[in-house]
Write a structure and sequence with these properties.
Elements lengths: L1 H4 L5 E9 L10 E10 L2 H11 L20 E5 L5 E7 L2 E5 L6
Antiparallel strand pairs: 1-2, 1-3, 3-4, 4-5
């Protein structure tokens, strides 16, 4: 019963992955994949996407990009609650402004 009372609610996030055509480029981001990911918050969602797209057996068959690497951007759309852009940097995922996607 205690477990039911303290259960963390999960939400369904609309996630879009943006990558450049070549690794280490800073311009020319293109949408390579869009999916729905379940998680308690953005941090958990980012971790799940990173884990899914960096294990060859877990990558979806219709994914046309490369492994998630430094510089790649994830866009999380929560509808009325806002739109959030995260870029993978050497220190982890950092929130960025939309203007940086070109």
């Amino acid at each position: 019963m205690l477990k039911e009372l303290t259960r963390v609610k999960t939400k369904l996030f609309d996630v879009t992955i943006f990558q450049t055509p070549e690794f280490r480029q800073t311009k020319g981001y293109r949408q390579v994949y869009r999916l729905s990911m379940e998680g308690a918050d953005h941090e958990e969602c980012l971790y799940s996407v990173f884990a899914t797209f960096n294990v060859p057996d877990l990558i979806p068959k219709d994914f046309s990009g490369r492994f998630i690497a430094t510089g790649d951007i994830l866009f999380i759309d929560e509808g009325r609650r806002g739109q959030f852009y995260y870029q993978l940097q050497p220190g982890g995922w950092k929130i960025i402004n939309r203007i940086q996607i070109r």
